[in-house]
Write a structure and sequence with these properties.
It is a single chain. The protein has 643 residues and is mostly helical. It has 5 domains: 99 residues, no CATH class; 57 residues, no CATH class; 84 residues, no CATH class; 149 residues, no CATH class; 76 residues. Helix 16 packs parallel to helix 18.
């Protein structure tokens, strides 16, 4: 522009130009691109997108970056009350707060419904017959949500209208500034009009985000062009640059301090305010433009990087959470219901499922796009498990009544036996009853504890009485051991040389006395019997008494031991069966020898063989006689009453 277009200022005009109102307004000028020149053309937004930290504004951030600030109540009433407060407030509630309350409300509602369903099934109801109750709170809660939705829609509509109006106003301001750059009117008039336009520009805030950068750059270019074209005197320009430099330096220091902020999200949102302030400050001198711009840009870029890294970390954590929740779902899918065939197995598996549910609650958020999907899958798998469990319990309900009758019968039998003193037989019966009890399935829960306690009490009473009796018996066994030791010494002292018949009578009397003495401690049994048998054999050998007789006496002693032990009847019957088997076997063998001896008696050369066979036959007859006496001894013991 020709120098003649710039009017000269006289002293009075200079004083007017330097008044405080103009000096204050100079400091409010909007920032321009630091490297812009007078002849610079308007640069398209796409070319400057990578150069300006202002591009990362709050308006351009994804919705998920907003975090809930409200404290979640623990009850549905509290949640409804909190939502009512959000509806009543003048401002539009944050979406994150509304979503948090909504999720919390339906989580509690779902938990209440599941609890009622489980109680319905536990009370004997069929899970297919369960109908969820109407929740009056839910209708009120939905009405509150619709009110907030309407409020948000109206606010957005009003905001969009304001932005459109503001865009038109700012475009008009740019056109007005452009017209000032082409005007040759009085400088003071042009300058005042320019400052008025700056003030109007600063007062207009919201514009459409898609137009913000281009609008701002156009405004900056024409603002700087105005300064260059009208050639404001150096005093005003230098003062303006100095004040702008001070303000921008302060902003740089504040932004750099944000790098120390531990809350990166808060730092990011504070940065947006500093960006807005930067835009409202005019240019600085060319010498410092690039330096202060790089300082501000560097700090802004670092905060933006930290902010982005924060959400990348959150995304990684969400992916980890998704993997953990997916693993829980896979565990639920892998349940083999065919293996759950008893109360115990269902109970153990239920504890596992409850533990998985508790773990699920400790896992944080997953990516929003799969949040609903993974939760619905998890909830369906849990519902399937508890429905299967309810079906199992329902199928066993009829069987429980039959089991109860069986256990009542066993209880009555246990009560009838608890006072018995036939320790061996009753012990076998009690153990059999307990084993049978274990084979019977579950009974209705309301009878389970009572019948079990009665049954255990009856069994415990019997075994405690048996234990007390056995304690007394052990004392008797010790006394019996002493008696048997004395008897052994008595047997050894019998004089068999002077009177054989008297000695024999004394020995048989000692044998009878031995039988009359009761049991000895089990660990001493074999040892004392061996000493007793050795003493008898020595005396019998001296008296030359038949060995069959000795065997019979030994057998009678053994039978006496068996008869006094637990399970005596079974042992005696088994011993008798064994002897009968031996008897039949020997009898058959004897028959064979007797048949063969007839053939040998007609042979001329069978004298020696015939003699051996006759001896064998006599031996077999003696064996049969001994076995017969043993059988008679057993039958006598069986028929005698228990000691």
């Amino acid at each position: 522009m020709n120098e003649n277009l710039v009017p000269e200022l006289n002293n009075e005009e200079m004083n007017t130009s330097n008044n405080s109102e103009q000096n204050n307004e100079v400091a409010k000028e909007i920032v321009q691109p630091e490297n812009a020149t007078v002849n610079q053309q308007i640069t398209p937004t796409s070319e400057l997108a990578e150069e300006t930290p202002e591009e990362k504004t709050e308006e351009n951030q994804p919705e998920k970056e907003a975090e809930a600030t409200i404290t979640l109540p623990e009850t549905k009433d509290g949640i409804v009350e909190a939502m009512e407060k959000l509806v009543e407030q003048n401002d539009v509630p944050q979406r994150a707060d509304v979503d948090a309350l909504k999720q919390a409300f339906y989580k509690l509602k779902s938990a209440e419904n599941n609890a009622r369903k489980e109680q319905f099934v536990a009370d004997g109801g069929n899970v297919e017959d369960y109908v969820a109750e109407q929740d009056p709170q839910e209708e009120h809660f939905k009405d509150l949500l619709n009110k907030i939705k309407d409020k948000r829609a109206k606010a957005l509509e009003a905001e969009e209208k304001i932005k459109a109006d503001n865009l038109a106003k700012k475009l008009q301001i740019i056109d007005s500034i452009k017209a000032l750059t082409e005007s040759s009117d009085d400088f003071n008039k042009l300058f005042k009009e320019f400052k008025d336009l700056q003030q109007k520009w600063n007062e207009i805030k919201l514009v459409p985000a898609s137009e913000a950068n281009n609008l701002w750059k156009s405004y900056q270019i024409y603002s700087e062009k105005f300064y260059d074209l009208v050639k404001i005197n150096n005093e005003f320009r230098d003062y303006d640059f100095k004040k702008n430099m001070e303000l921008k330096t302060q902003i740089c220091e504040s932004v750099e301090k944000l790098l120390e902020e531990s809350d990166v999200v808060s730092a990011f949102y504070q940065l947006q305010n500093f960006h807005q302030q930067w835009r409202e400050i005019g240019p600085v001198d060319r010498e410092h433009r690039e330096e202060v711009w790089e300082r501000f840009k560097t700090a802004s870029t670092e905060i933006n990087k930290r902010y982005q890294a924060h959400f990348e970390t959150l995304k990684e954590q969400e992916d980890t959470n998704l993997a953990e929740k997916t693993a829980i779902c896979e565990t639920l899918k892998a349940i083999d219901y065919s293996l759950l065939t008893s109360f115990k197995e269902w109970d153990e598996k239920s504890k596992e499922i409850i533990a998985l549910q508790a773990k699920w609650k400790t896992i944080g958020f997953v990516p929003r796009k799969v949040n609903t999907q993974i939760f619905e899958e998890y909830r369906a798998l849990c519902d399937k498990f508890f429905e299967k469990k309810a079906e199992f319990f329902k199928s066993l309900k009829d069987g429980m009544e039959a089991n109860l009758e069986k256990k009542k019968a066993l209880l009555e039998k246990a009560i009838s036996l608890k006072d018995s003193t036939d320790w061996g037989k009753t012990t076998d019966e009690m153990i059999a009853i307990q084993r049978e009890w274990k084979t019977i399935g579950a009974v209705p829960r309301k009878f389970s504890d009572a019948i079990w306690k009665e049954f255990v009490a009856a069994c415990d009473y019997f075994f405690e009485q048996k234990k007390a009796a056995n304690s007394s018996q052990k004392e008797n066994e010790v006394n019996n051991l002493a008696k048997k030791k004395e008897l052994i010494e008595k047997i050894k002292a019998i004089d068999v040389t002077s009177d054989a018949k008297q000695a024999s009578d004394d020995l048989y009397a000692a044998i009878e006395e031995w039988r009359q003495i009761g049991f000895v401690p089990f660990k001493e049994k074999d040892k004392i019997y061996k000493e007793y048998q050795t003493a008898l054999d020595e005396q019998f050998d001296k008296l030359k008494i038949d060995r069959s007789e000795r065997k019979l006496q030994n057998f009678k002693s053994n039978i006496d031991d068996i008869a006094g032990s637990d399970k005596s009847q079974n042992k005696l019957y088994k011993e008798r069966e064994k002897l009968i088997y031996q008897f039949n076997k020997i009898k058959s063998e004897l028959q064979t020898y007797e048949n063969n001896i007839g053939f040998l008696s007609v042979s001329k050369n069978s004298g020696g063989l015939l003699k051996d066979m006759n001896n064998k036959i006599e031996h077999l007859k003696d064996e049969l006689d001994l076995i017969t006496k043993k059988i008679e001894t057993i039958e006598t013991s069986i028929n005698e009453p228990n000691q």
